[in-house]
Every structure is written in C-alpha cells, then in structure tokens.
## 1
Amino acid sequence: MKNLKGALMFGQSGGPTSVINASAAGVFLEARKHPNITAVYGLAHGIKGLLEEDFYDMGKEDEKELLLMKNTPSSSLGSVRYKLANIDKDDTDYKRILEVFKKYNVRYFFYNGGNDSMDTCNKISKYLLSVGYDCNIIGVPKTIDNDLYGTDHCPGFGSAAKYIATTLMELNLDAKVYDKGQVAVIEIMGRNAGWLTAAASLAGYKGLGADLIYLPEVPFCVDKFKKDVKRVMDANKGKCIACVSEGVRNKDGKLIVEEFSDEKSKDHFGHTQLGGLAIHLADLINQEYGVKVRGIEFNLMQRCAAHLASAVDVEEAFNAGVEAVKAAVSGKSDMMVAFERDMSSGSYKCKYFLLPLEKVANTEQKVPLEWIINNGTALSQDFIDYALPLIQGDCKAPLEDGLPRFARLKKVQAGIKK
Amino acid sequence: MKNLKGALMFGQSGGPTSVINASAAGVFLEARKHPNITAVYGLAHGIKGLLEEDFYDMGKEDEKELLLMKNTPSSSLGSVRYKLANIDKDDTDYKRILEVFKKYNVRYFFYNGGNDSMDTCNKISKYLLSVGYDCNIIGVPKTIDNDLYGTDHCPGFGSAAKYIATTLMELNLDAKVYDKGQVAVIEIMGRNAGWLTAAASLAGYKGLGADLIYLPEVPFCVDKFKKDVKRVMDANKGKCIACVSEGVRNKDGKLIVEEFSDEKSKDHFGHTQLGGLAIHLADLINQEYGVKVRGIEFNLMQRCAAHLASAVDVEEAFNAGVEAVKAAVSGKSDMMVAFERDMSSGSYKCKYFLLPLEKVANTEQKVPLEWIINNGTALSQDFIDYALPLIQGDCKAPLEDGLPRFARLKKVQAGIKK
C-alpha cells in the first residue's frame, strides 16, 4: 500500500449506461479534493485514448457541469471496445501504456466498465506490478447487464430496470386498449444474463406486466413459446404480452435469432448486433394464430433513458467513483469497487467494499435458476425483493426549453491529439 | 341552444395517447358538478360500448382516481376503431344509438378522438338533429399525429413530441459514443402528417438531434436517402442519425415500407401495421457502405410514455374535457373543442373555442411545406417556435415502489353487459 503523488487517469469502456457519467463525476469531483493527485485526466474512448495520448484535463471543467454529468447518459468521454492482447503473445500495448504513464507521471488509474473492461484493468494492473511501476489501479463497475461477479449489483442496472418496468407498465395499458386479441413481443437486452429481462416482472408486481418472461438462463423452445402464448391468449380474450431476452438460445446453445436468420433473410438480422428477435417471434405468432401482433425492441433506449434513471442507481454510481478515489488515495490497488446489500436496519442500504480484480475479470453472474419459475416464464418473489430497492426514486437532469439540460464539457486536450 | 337535463355519455376512440385520460378526467370531474347532468357514463371501447350497452357509472369513481387519470396513459375505458356506415346505406347503428340514448335519457354525448372519431361524432350529431332528439354533442380532440383541422394543435401531440425530442437527445449521445462510424435510422409514427417526426428537430435545436429528418409531406427517394446519409457520414467521421416517418412514400404515393416488402419477405413486414421501415433502411445503408447500423422504432412508446408527458399537454387535454362539458351544458352542440394560440402577452397561452364538427371530420392538417427545408431533410425555425411551447414542464404519476401509480378505476357496470 503506497501513498503516491502524481496524475490520475480515468477511462470509460464498453456499452454506455444512463449513469456511467455519474461514476465519472464521482471520480473527478473527489479527485480534485486530494493534494496528492496533481492532475485529473479523462481518457477519450478509454484505452484507445490512453494508447494515443488522447485525453482531457478534467481540472479545467466547471464543477456545475461535472455535477450535471450525474444525469447525462452515455459516456461523455467516449467509450471503446478494445481487448488487450495476452501479454505472452504481444506486449506492445503494455509497453506503450507504461510509456504514457511515465511521461505524464500517472500514479492513479481507474477504468470504468463491465466484464471485459475489468479484464483490461486487471491486465494493466498485473503488468505494472510485474515491472515495478507504482500506480494504484481501481476498477469502477458499470453494466446494465448486472452480470459482474462478486458484487450485489452493478451501477446502471437499476436505471435500466426502472426503464423496462415503467415502460412495460405503460405498454401493458396500451396493448390492452382495444376489444380485440393482440400479442406483443418485447425484446430486452442481455446477451447471456437475464437480469434486465427479469426486470419485466417488476411491472407484473404492480399488476401491469408481461404474461410471459423468457431469460437466456433457460433454453428457449420456439414450439413451447407458441403454446405458451396460445394458452395465455385463450385465457385473456386473445391478448398476450411476452418479454424475451435478445440472448435466448435453444437447447444446443444456438441463439434463437440466428435460427431465424438461417431460415429466412440472413442478411437482414443479427449481422451487426442482436435484435430483430421480437419481430420474428411476433411474426411467427401471427402466422400461426392469425392474431394481430407487434414486435417491440427497447433497443438503445433501455441503456440511455437517463430521464427515467433510478435515484438509488445515480447515487450509487456516483459513490462508486468517489470510493474508487478514496481507496486509491489510501493506498489500495488492483481492486474493483463492489456493492454489498445491508438490510440490517430493516431497509435497504448499500455498502461499498473492494474485490480483487482477477476475481471479477471475465466472470459472469447470472440470474439464479431457482428464481425462474412457471416452467421458465416468470420470476419468483426473490427477484422482486432483490430488484425493487434498486429502482427507487427519480433523479434526472433539470429542464431547459422543456428538454434535459445535459452536461457540456470543455474537453480541454491534455495529451497530444489535436 | 337548449339547456337539457339528462345523462352524459363519454367515449374514447382511436389510438390512445399519454394524455387521452386527462381529457376523460376533465369531462368526468366537470360533469359531476352540474345538476342538469343526472348521470355520468363512460363507454367501454367507445362506440362499441354504446351499441352494446356496455358502460360504467363514473359517478361511482373516487375523485382521487379520476385525478390520477391525468397521468395514466392509454384509454382507461378502452378504445375502438369503428367506422359508422353512411346512413343512406345502413341506418342500423344510428337507430340503435337513438334507442340507447332514449333508454338512458342521454342528453350529453362526448366523443374523444382524431379524424375518424370526429367523423363518427359528426354523423351521430347530424342524425340526432335529423330525428329531432335533443342531445348536446361535443367532440373532444385527441391525436399524437396533430393533424386535426382548424385547431392550432391537438392534445397528445405535445407529450409525444417531448418523448421523441428527449429520447432522441439521449440516443444522440449514445450513438456517438464509440470512435467508429455508425448509422442509426429512427422510425417515428405518422401515417400522412409529419408533425411527430418533425419533433426530432427540437432535439437538434438543443444540439443533440438528427442529421436528417424525413416527413411524409415530401416524396421519399431511397437513392437520395443513401446519398444524404453518405454526405453526413463523410462530414462526421462515419456517423449519422436519420429520423424517418413510418409514412414516407415515393413520388407515386406508394409507401416505402411496402417497396421493401415487395422485394423481400412480404410476410414479414407491413402486413398488420406500419413499422419495420427503420430496419430496412438501416440494412440498406449497411449493404451499401458496410458501416455499422442500427434501426430503432419508437413504436408504441411514443404514444404511451406518460412518464415523460408535457405538463402543458396534460393541462390542455384536461381543459379540453372541462370546456366540452361547459359548452354542452350552456347549450352548445354539434361542435369540437379547438385550441387557439394566444401570444399577445409575449408568452404562449392556450385559448379554447368551438369548431363545427363537419369542418373537422375527415380533414387532415399537414406540416406546411415551407417549414420543410434543406432539400427535405430538416425543419425551419418556424416549427421550433410552433412546437417548443407545447412540450414545456413535467407532469407525471406519483411513484409507488419506484414505479408509476396509475389510476385504478372501479368500472361499475351501468349498462347491461355482465
């Protein structure tokens, strides 16, 4: 544990969320308080900005704008999907990172992201340890997917879950408005873990949810899906709402959306990202039962609808950034900030602790199978109890002209990029 | 002009909106104040409930729940799409309506909807006049499409416009997050009038909008679209956001989404409703330029996202219901409540007046062509000035468990339906 004096670098990585900038705000505002931190840099596009010496002097930003970052969605610094090579095969990037760190006397490094980003963070940390360069490195968690290992939940999940539950309640009212049968299939993000799709059950808890919920944790059978929908239609005047994770797979592990792509227009779907599954499944129901259908994707909205962020999530994301700085300044390194649920007072409270980076890197946490009930179509009360505290309260940007006033950063270049 | 004593019937019709229930609340709460109104009935599924004697006694509802209707999306009574036959061809429905009105002594009738619904309202009004049955009939406007003739704007538009502008601002930040080219095509409702798609320009006014906006008022050429996108990509590091109305048509008046359906999988798209256009156009860009693409539909969310309703819209929708009752009670009939913009004080104010129903029925108001600029890809400041006052302020349901607490009506049956 070392008390270091030098610059701080912070980068955002992976898919953005509604509250990823809240963590950045936490890091920047806390970092500016510590005399040992001589400069605060924000990397443009994460690790890419580091390799290219493309970063901003966050010390030059107005505090007011940094506070507005708490309610500004997406990654204000720019994000990246970049996987560091295994050091045994190619150490070019690692040497370059060391070079940049030395050049700017970087002694604090924070990386904000999900599984892949924690892998990057872990690799850099282990490399710098191996070469004896003193730098305190802390991972800051972030992912709407909520699948990081060892933490009760992840910043970003609560707001996405709140978006999904709120929007589903509204859609439920809309989809039932006519005196005719109608089937709505709603596609929700989550490639391997079904936490987000499970959030649909929160709307059901309020009486306005989905009739069927399918998570990627359980093999998906198209024939069973058709029968499930039929059963609900028969009991509900031809109406049914089904929520399906984009990542559902058949029993052989093949993505269902790929099954459709094979049969029909392979060029049309799944070639750039997942998506399109809802339309395919809705179409199938239409062909089978001749009922009116609608395929709905929550698409990018579920990860950037900051106007519907959970106040709990915003606060925890901000605190994750603050805690990261406090830990690093107190000499901690090679760790990720994690959340623990404290119910000892009878109500929900979040406690922060540190997890070794290597434990988190590349490990996925899925929805417990015992929480998935009704033959793989619903969530138990365990999930409701788990998720409900995470979606409490509203916290959004102030209005200007009736629209959100998001942070406007100066982004003063502090590296070499023009 | 007659001062009548008897029951009031109110029905909701056509596609629901975020604030259609606010108008219902205005009608019910105002109606309960007037001694000449002996009963207040809410029709289940509009005209269908009238024909089937399926309606609720709104006098039995708690005032608190009626007030919550102001922030409850979709049609709480149920909606319908039912076109009355021309009376010269078939007067069955008309006779049945008269029969029901006589049975329950209905002397006040209000119908809430868009063009088609005003046509229905007009037909019933003219029939009752022709047979000499005294009943004061007032149309209450409603449509996110904003295409009703003779009124400055329509209840429902402001909230949908606010959803579109806010969501586009959030998506703009998300779509630019990586240091790579990406094209997002966003599909917005509006079969013939482009008001909603034009609302994308409000996000642009705040610096976070679309690069290209295509309205159905201007013929759409797929080749020009591809070139427009390329031009924007070239100037913006491969990035482009395009908003397209679902109702864009080629120069021969054929829907673009149908062009795609012909070429490819006709079974897949456009057979139940519009939609799917964004995916098709995004796919086309991907094939042409090999860039990463995303097709996004705002889908039903744009008409039911009550959590993002405009306070101005909620208030005006409520007032439209109140004004309808006041007009009818004072002896007016055969009219629709309409809005006039009063800028005499230097700031926006809405005034209410009455328009003859026959002037409104089946007439569409489109976006003025002179407001559509940049070779059919943008809106002028005229539109911003027009729309901005309509999206001001927030007004949403209170939270319960972190989720909206929508109205819960008792729906006490007052007709004959079990």
## 2
Amino acid sequence: MNAQPPRPAFAGWLSETNDITARFLAAGGVPGLINLAGGLPAPETYPGEAVAALAAEAARESAETLAYGPIHGLPALRDAVAARFSTPEMALGRENVLITTAGMQGLSLVGQVLIEPGQAVACQSPAYLGALDAWRPRRPAWRPIFPERNGFDAEAALSGAQFGYVVPNFSNPMGRLVGLERRLELAEAAEATGTWLVEDDPYGALYYDSEPLPRILSLSGALRPGRYRGPVVYLGTFSKEIAPGLRIGWAIAAPEMIEALAAAKQGADMCTSPLTQKIALRALETGLPEAIRPGLLSLYAKRRDALAAAMAAHLAGLFDWEVPVGGMFLWATAKDPAFDTDRLFEAGLEAGVCVTPGRVFDPLGEDRRSIRLNFTLNDEAKLEEGVRRLTKAARAM
Amino acid sequence: MNAQPPRPAFAGWLSETNDITARFLAAGGVPGLINLAGGLPAPETYPGEAVAALAAEAARESAETLAYGPIHGLPALRDAVAARFSTPEMALGRENVLITTAGMQGLSLVGQVLIEPGQAVACQSPAYLGALDAWRPRRPAWRPIFPERNGFDAEAALSGAQFGYVVPNFSNPMGRLVGLERRLELAEAAEATGTWLVEDDPYGALYYDSEPLPRILSLSGALRPGRYRGPVVYLGTFSKEIAPGLRIGWAIAAPEMIEALAAAKQGADMCTSPLTQKIALRALETGLPEAIRPGLLSLYAKRRDALAAAMAAHLAGLFDWEVPVGGMFLWATAKDPAFDTDRLFEAGLEAGVCVTPGRVFDPLGEDRRSIRLNFTLNDEAKLEEGVRRLTKAARAM
C-alpha cells in the first residue's frame, strides 16, 4: 500500500501541554537518581495489610462493589464525608457531596462545568501543575492571583471570574499557608461577588508544627445558617491520608454544583469503582486515617527538617526559601534574578538529582528562577545527598 | 446577609445534557419496578470470592498497588492486553495500549484529543448514550452514519470527519452485528481517508449463537505488516467480562494516539487505580474471564430467548424487532410511525416497567418510535412480567 494519508489534527490544547510529569516518571526509572521532583508519599506509610483485609471484605459484597455504582458515589460514603466535614456552624448533607476518582478528577470536572474558551480563571500563582493540565483542554484565560501577598484584594481577584482557585494549606508548589484572616476575606469575597471559589485541599492533614486552620469552606458555611449553599467548591482526597492507589476523592459544594459535576462525571468515567469506595468507607469507619497519621506526621516532619538543614548547609548562598510548616514541598527562589532553573533541571538530571523547575507551575510559563523540592518520598540520607548533587550542578552552571 | 449574587453560568453543554441515566438509576430504587432500561450485567455473575482473593493479594503489594501508578497503566497489564489482542497478522506492543478507568473514560479521552467545537464526528446512529454524554462538552457536529444498512459507503461516511464511531459487536442500542465485509470496508476506508475510526467493543465476548467475527482493529492491522500504526482506536473493558465495579478498560491504537490519550488522561484522573489494575492483571493471568464465560453466555442466551418469546407473545402487533445474536439489548420499532416512545417511557413507569426511549440514542434527538430493552439483568419470570406491563401501557396509549 502507499503512504498513509495525513490524520485529522489533534485538538489544539495538546500542543500546549507540558511533558514534565512524563519526564519525572521516566526519571524515576533511572538507577541511582534521587527524585525530589514528584509529589509522592513515602510508600512505607501505605497500610497494605489493613487495606488487604478491607478489600477482601468489600469484594465479597459483590452485588454492590463489583457492580456499576451510582454516579454520585456510594450513599454511605457520601454521608461519611458529609459528617466528617460538617462543623458546628455548617451542616453538610449527602446532596453536598460527590465522590471523585481522586482529587485530579475533581479539578477536571470543575473545568468541564465552569470553563468556556476564553473565560477567566483566577488562579493562585504559582499553581498546581495538575490543575493547569486539567483545565488546559477548556482553554481558559488565566488570571494569576497572589493570596499570600500583602495587599491582596480578594474581591478584585475574584470579580468577573468563573471561579477562583486556591490551595490554602501548603499550596503546591510553594508549601505556604494562607492565613486565617485572608481565608475569611476569600470566603466573604466569594459570597459578595458570586464567583465560585475552588478550595483544593490535598495536604490539609499534613500540619507538622501547629493545629490546622479552619477551611475556607467552613468559614463560608458559617456566613449563612442551614445546609451549605455557598460558593466554595472544596476538593479533598485520601491520596495523602491513606494511599493514592485507592483513587478516592470528593467534592463538597452547593447541591446545584454537585449536580453539574455529576453530569460531567457521568461522561468522564460513569462512576468511581465501588470496590475502592467501599474500602475507603470502611477505612473511615475503622479510623484508619487517624491511626496512620501520627507516624506519617512524625516521619514527614523529620524529613522536612533534614531537607531544610541540608539546604541551609549547602544552598544558602544561591537560593532563598521559607521552611514550610506542613505539606510536602519546599519552594526555593534563586538570589540571582538571571538564574535559569530550566537549565538547573537539566544539569540536576546529569548530576543524578531531579527537581521541578518553577516554570511549569506558572500559568503564563515565565518563571525561570524557582524550584520545588519534595521532602516526603526520600529518607534523610537521600535528601542530604540530593541537595549535595543539586548544589554541585548549580555551582557548575 | 442579603440575597446571594448570581453565580457565573455553567458551561453551555450542561443545558443540552439528558437526565435519562439519572432517571434510570432513580427508577432502580422504586419498589417492584422491573428495570429493562439499563445496561447492567446480572449481579449473580460477579466473581466475588475470586476477586476477594486477588484483591487481598494485590493490596499486600502496597508499594506498587497503593501508590500512584504510571499514567499509561501498569506495564504488565499493558503487555497482557497487547498479547491478548495481537493476532497472527497484527503485532501489538505495550506502546499500543493505554489502560483507562473503564470504557467510558476511553470515549471521554477520545473526545478530549480529537474534537474541537464544530468538528465532524461520524457516529453510528442510533448511538450509545454514554458516547454522546462523553463528547457533548466538546461540542462536535454530529454526522449520523448507518453501517448496518445496505448501500453504506464507508469512505463517504468517514471522509473529512475527525473520527468515525462504530460498535460493530451488538451495537448499543440496536444489538446488531456489523458483518465481516462491512468491517473490512470500514478498515480500508479509514486507511484510505486517514480518518480515525473508534471501534467500541464492550460486548465483544457476548456472542450467543456463533463464533466472534474479526475485530476491525485486526482487519486494519492486517493491511500493513509490523507493529500497529493504523487508524483504528479500539476501546475495550472488563465491565461485561468480569465486573463493572473494577472500572478497568483499555484503548489500543497507534502509539501517537496512545500518547495523546495519555496526555488527556493525565489531566482527567492522573492514573487508574493500580489496585484494581493489579486485580484485573491477575484475573487475566489466572483465566478468570474464560472461567466465567460459559455460565455467563448460557444465562444471557436463556434470558434473551425469554424476552424474545414474551415479545412475540404480546407485542408482535405493535412493534417490529430482530432477535439479537449477542450483546445485552433488543431494539424494537413501533409499526405505527406516529407512535411516541417518549410517552411509552412515562406510561411504562406508571405500569411498573422501565424501558429506554429511542430518542436518547439519536444524536439529533428525533427518534420517537423505538425502544431498547435489556435482557441480561432480570430473570425469565421478570422479563415476561416486564413485557406484560409494557404491553398494557402501550395498549392504553
């Protein structure tokens, strides 16, 4: 036969996507490379034996767990999530909860229901790479917002946008907290402008040095009594509290938003596996996240301290950073404004260490001065050695 | 506080979506209602004990199964799917396979990578409701095609479209086979025009009366030797061969298409649960689908016969149909062109039976004359009683 005729073009967004996640994953397979780039939990924290028992029990309830599940999720799991996130000031019911195929699907569904091409998304910047990936196919106009900065005007930030996007607990990539006063301003600005406010909270359980601050969802709910009808769309996941392999997350929002997200979920994957949902439900009922948490927090706090110590010993002349009080990441910015962290990423790979260049978190793709370092995956010795390799690579540039 | 300000509008496609799936699911909860509407397997066929053992074993491999998995799927499962669908004339490798969160996600990802608003999709009509749901957010222009009809011109059907969509094995909703000659014409037309051809095959294992016909994928692969690089995008699932609750499916295609689909999957749910992937892999390795199949085929063939007999006894004066030789559905068209199956759907609900009106499968939303009846979920007595109720409702119209 002759040469094949040309195929129809792929959708335009594909030419704008980044290959950084694929490169991280490929880097993970290089022998001896120290991977500080991903956002991975420590695999030794995964409760394999506990999940094995729950999984076997769940699979035996096969008429429910091996069947198609309801689009919105198992009713009992929706109720359990509603109960877990209700506060004295805010009542949540099943109608406020959609179960998602982990946190990433929550982001994707938000994009499906709220973005038409060219519409504004007020996005905390630098922003979670996965959120940018999830929304790029919908072609939004990015409006970067900076809720950690002094002088931030929440109403101006949200006004006229389809939605605002914030990660108030240890934002990925910066690892910073949005303070209580700013959270309240955001809740009130969403109420005043009508704009939806997506509160993405994968790291909310990972406070190492203090008690958790109230969620923006809770502050928003306290503004009006009764069942939640407000503008916050709260996205959660078990990926960091139990294990990412379950692929179980949830959206909490006003019922009209839950119904819209469910319509998008129907066309995305019909339903989340009832088998893994039932495992997550039994895990909640038996207190598995609470049983794991002390060990998780102590392990991660030690690793955070080890990374910060290694940075202070080797990189203090080149970079500035704040030691994060929670989450999984440390964000460092080069003192020299002309420093190029895209080049450092490449030089690091050659030196046997992988970090994430700041550019990939910039909706406008411009930041060349920052890097993100993960401290949860590797033990203290590897963190120290990773920083040594990075320092060597940086000094050779 | 004052009344809440208006929220930003939802994306436009939401106002065009149908609520029929949600209504089926709600109808499932009505006591005594006989549900002939859905596309559900018989729950007594789900291998709960076998999956329980595989699930416990898989969960204990927690460093792999409870972690994030590769975006493309577990390498061993991709290899197993490649081996299962290779033929003497067509070699598939890991690079030809993407694991999806069941068949619906395969459809959704195809839409993400191939549809820009207004582009043509050549869609077998009437079409699977879920495919229409999956693609509606991308705003395609529907081009209905009729590959079962005499005089079908495959090149004209595909030419200039982004992709063609066919369900050659027992198409949902019509339950018809696309014959061998027509399959070859479609494979050759895709090759000649360059247009992608999506072969959706959830029912390929459900042949009751004969040996399976070759897949269009296999026919396409045989046109050129070597690793598959052709235009067919084959979508499969374990939902009907093992159990839908696993949410495991796959796309088989040219490597460039697999990479595009993987970029979309990254932003959709990052990865499919490695836990349920590992269960599916062990199920394949231990021959679970083959062990289940004889019982499944014999059960479903008996039910198909029972439905056909009840229809012949009660509805022959009102409807025409063909007895399907596989799949899960019987498609019936009213003899009277003025008969309104939207009204029959409502009247059926009142009489205690739920069927699917033809309109929801028509990309243009016009068919008011047909109904789809499922025969896999209910036993013979219920199928007979369901048809009696439907007949009563139809005669009272």
## 3
Amino acid sequence: MDISDWRKQIDELDRKLVEILNQRAKAAHEIGKLKRTAGMPIYEPDRERAVFQNVRGVNQGPLPDADLQRIFERIMDLMRKIQQEEIAPNAAEGLGSTELES
Amino acid sequence: MDISDWRKQIDELDRKLVEILNQRAKAAHEIGKLKRTAGMPIYEPDRERAVFQNVRGVNQGPLPDADLQRIFERIMDLMRKIQQEEIAPNAAEGLGSTELES
C-alpha cells in the first residue's frame, strides 16, 4: 500500500469516528435530560474515572493509554458542555437560551 | 432508558472508538515509514486540511463541526507524534530536523 491508499483508509476510519462521536453526543444529551430531571450534577468524577478505566481496559495498542486518555479528555470536555447546555441553558444569562428551551 | 442504560451504550461506543483510533494509529505509523523512505515532511498542512474537510463533509450532527474539529486536532497532534517517532526517533538531538528536509 502506498501513502494514498493509507490515507483512503484513514478517511474511512474518520467517517466512522464522526458517526460514533455523534452517537456518543446523543447519549450524553439524553443523560443530560435525565440529570436535569433528577437534579444531578454534571460533573461526576467517579463516572469519568470509570470511562478512562473502560478505555484502558480494552486498549490493545499501539496507542499508549496516556495518548488515548488525552483524546478522551477532550471528548469528555465537549460532552460536559453538551450536558451543561441541557441542564443549565441560562447559565450564561440568556446566551442562546431560545434553542435550549425544549 | 435510564442513565445506567445510556452509560452502557457510551461504554460500548468508547470501545469502538478505542479500536478505530488504534487502527488509525497503525495507518499513521505505516505512512510514517513511507515518508521516511521518501524523505517527506511529517507536517503537511494540505493533508490536514483535507482531513478536516472530510470530517465536516460527513458530519450530520448533533456535534457542531467546531467541536469535532477540536477532537480531531488532538487526534492529529498524537498522530504527528507517532510519525515523528517513526521518522526521527532521535529528534531530541536534532529537534525534528528531518521534517524540514523536504
């Protein structure tokens, strides 16, 4: 395989990543709604630790755990933002409040 | 579905993410080897732009393009590191000089 073949493979992998990340965002959004109903906090350190543990547990490399963790840290930052918007849409004093009134 | 069900779904999605990210790392490693042989630079802005374009092109939401781009920026940082190690394992001495010899 030449570089162009490998890049086609990467593009295909990236399309799958986009799809899965969007599915994950939908799930985070649903959890946000349930948390709002239950009055639960967005940030749950135990759950975040469980996510990293799951990731490390299935990692067969070649990416080191620490690299995967850096990627998942960013993913979870964004997912917290999604839940923040779901739970406290007016946290920024009305910023974008209309689209969040569901 | 309750929170625990959604979390099970997230854990399953994360396992898929770990697998795909590792496949991507393997491809980046292979490209690194080919670049070394061809004396090509690691950092190729045109290719990075093409990756983001591919990501935005297939994104159907709910994640906004900007959020996906932030995740892919981190992924690509790590992939560049993998290629750096493949192309110039002793870069600590020559500080990445190989990548400039294009």
